[in-house]
Design goal:
alpha+beta, five-stranded antiparallel sheet, five-stranded mixed sheet, 8 helices, 362 residues, Beta-Lactamase
């Protein structure tokens, strides 16, 4: 028996497995293959206990749904697959009774993925609220800044003692500095100008810029998947986002240490609750001291900086640019290893050839 009569299952981001009344697997969608790390051909036709050796809690949930003829969700379910993949999931069992689908529909949701999606949505909402607040504040500050600088210029022309010009120069320089800061706060509002680019060319430009700033003591190693094709993005925004993250890593290292630039093709990527068959993953990894626990959950907030003298805008702008492209930035940090991971959706049509095994380059 097959369940191809049920439309849309292949496109779901949720892992779906269909069992017949004998608890034999009839179907698993691509999301289930990705979750279980088992291909469809190696799962279809096998009994539940052959797929999950520790199937007792899952079998009990199925029995409950069958006895009560209702959908039943078992939370905090710990399973081990035949491929020894350990899972922590919630599973919703729905009995079905029709001509083509007589059995049980199992929907698996990985708990870690649920937490990540919830964290992503919460972070997006917080960032959007902060961005609106900061942009409004920046607009309010820009107007009097212009008048302040103009008044300082007029005052300088009226002063007879040259030694007093030093003070008006301080006013104008500080006004210019604040003007530049306001411009940076307002920059992310620009609509992306989309073009196809090679992400490795963007990374090479970022690499050269960072090495120019830190010519001694800093090593930037490439770990590129050369099969990653061109992606449709705003080139300048992506370069700026990568540069901000890379420069943040170099500053954390104080110019001495190693940064790794890594690219990979990500499969079955869920971004903003949408499943993308293929995505682009870019990682910036450094071997610095790590992000302090006190600010780890706030590093993308405007004006939040863990470095003395930092503006706290670099990572905020990077996240804004990536969000505008439908992607996310994730942070994993501990002493000795900090990894910023950028995930961007990629249409399958952009792939001109399959992703080969990554070939590290040095």
């Amino acid at each position: 028996m097959t369940v191809h009569a049920l439309p849309g299952l292949d496109a779901l981001a949720t892992a779906v497995v269909f069992l017949d009344r004998n608890l034999t697997v009839c179907y698993a969608n691509p999301a289930a293959e990705n979750l279980l790390k088992i291909s469809n051909k190696n799962i279809v036709g096998h009994r539940l206990q052959d797929v999950f050796p520790d199937h007792a809690p899952l079998s009990a949930a199925i029995q409950y749904a069958a006895d009560h003829t209702c959908s039943y969700t078992q939370h905090d379910l710990k399973l081990t697959t035949v491929s020894l993949e350990k899972l922590e999931v919630s599973c919703t069992v729905t009995p079905t009774d029709s001509e083509n689908t007589d059995g049980y529909l199992l929907e698996f949701n990985e708990l870690q993925q649920q937490l990540r999606i919830a964290r992503e949505e919460r972070l997006h909402d917080q960032t959007e609220a902060s961005r609106v607040l900061i942009r409004n504040l920046a607009h309010e500050i820009k107007n009097p800044l212009g008048g302040l600088r103009g008044a300082a210029q007029l005052l300088e022309h009226e002063l007879d003692r040259p030694e007093l010009h030093e003070y008006t120069q301080v006013i104008m320089k500080e006004a210019d500095r604040l003007q530049s800061l306001m411009d940076r706060l307002l920059t992310p509002g620009r609509i992306p100008q989309l073009h196809q680019i090679n992400v490795h060319e963007a990374l090479e430009r970022v690499r050269s810029l960072i090495l120019a700033e830190y010519p001694e003591g800093l090593r930037i190693r490439r770990d590129y998947d050369v099969s990653v094709p061109a992606v449709t993005v705003d080139k300048e925004q992506i370069i700026q986002a990568l540069l901000n993250i890379g420069r943040n890593a170099a500053q954390a290292l104080r110019g001495y240490g190693e940064i790794v630039l890594r690219t990979r093709v990500a499969r079955q990527v869920t971004l903003a609750r949408r499943l993308h068959r293929l995505g682009l993953m870019v990682q910036v990894v450094d071997n610095g001291p790590g992000v302090p626990d006190a600010i780890r959950d706030k590093v993308f907030f405007p004006l939040m900086s863990g470095r003395e003298g930092g503006s706290g805008l670099g990572l905020t702008i990077a996240q804004t640019f990536i969000h505008q492209h439908g992607g996310i930035i994730e942070l994993d940090s501990k002493p000795g290893r900090t990894c910023f991971t950028i995930l961007l959706p990629m249409d399958a049509g952009q792939f001109q050839h399959g992703a080969a095994t990554a070939a590290p380059q040095h």
